[in-house]
Design goal:
D-Maltodextrin-Binding Protein, domain 2; 33% helix; 248 residues; globular
């Protein structure tokens, strides 16, 4: 019996030594509330989009294998807290509860905007939206809107940007809050794009970042060095250009 156990132990050791080593993984949490050009999902898995391009490039720069975990927006922070994922990207500190998270340098620059259909009167200024039902995403936070309108910020939540845009086009409401990366892309690709007003009201310009736990797999200086290298080589600009609408 002892001889058999010894032989099994030796065989297991040999197998572990001769088996090909698997590259260590860097696990990204990705919200299912976003859509193209940021994220493209297939059967619940992240299959493409700007966040996939960026994550793959960042992992290569850090010498990891990228893996993606798709999560509802309300669960992304919990996944970071319990170690299910190593980092989240395309977020801002005011969108999360935790105050101990570590935030990277800027990854993307975007604009928060109010959009509408062509058959809707254009907005002259943000205060005109007070009391209007506005398309929003479940679990997303809109601090600027909450500050401007308080209780007169009337949300109509949906699971994703794409669901929200469908509701707008089907006259469920007249105005939708989204971002310019998403909307500019939809203006050139959406089957019902002719019904969308190309002009929109800008709420604010904002940067987004990656976020790490304080004692996770990555340290912040190493992450920032990798982001800086991608930016210095023009990789991030090229990723964005793949999804930029063609000149009119």
């Amino acid at each position: 019996m002892r001889l058999r156990l010894l032989l099994n132990s030796v065989l297991l050791t040999v197998a572990c030594v001769t088996a090909p080593l698997r590259a260590d993984e860097l696990v990204f949490g990705v919200s299912t509330g976003s859509a193209m050009p940021m994220t493209e999902f297939s059967k619940g898995e992240l299959a493409g989009g700007l966040l996939r391009d960026f994550g793959d490039a960042l992992a290569r720069e850090l010498r990891y294998q990228a893996r993606y975990v798709s999560l509802p927006r309300k669960r992304v922070e919990a996944a970071l807290a319990d170690g299910q994922v190593d980092l989240l990207c395309d977020l801002r500190p005011e969108w999360l509860d935790g105050r101990s998270w570590l935030w990277s340098d800027t990854v993307f620059i975007n604009e928060q905007i109010i959009v509408s259909r062509r058959d809707t009167a254009p907005l002259a200024a943000l205060p005109a939206l007070a009391g209007e039902r506005i398309g929003t995403i479940l679990g997303y936070r809109y601090p600027r809107m909450e500050k401007v309108f308080g209780p007169r910020f009337v949300r109509d939540d949906a699971a994703s940007d794409d669901v929200n845009l469908s509701k707008l086009l089907n006259h469920r409401f007249s105005y939708l809050i989204t971002n310019s990366l998403y909307f500019d892309y939809q203006l050139t690709t959406h089957p019902q794009r002719a019904g969308l007003a190309p002009a929109y009201l800008k709420v604010m310009t904002f940067d987004t970042y990656c976020v790490l736990p304080p004692h996770g797999k990555l340290d912040l200086p190493r992450l920032n060095q990798a982001i800086a290298a991608l930016r210095r080589r023009g990789d991030i600009d090229r990723m964005r250009d793949r999804y930029r609408p063609p000149p009119q």
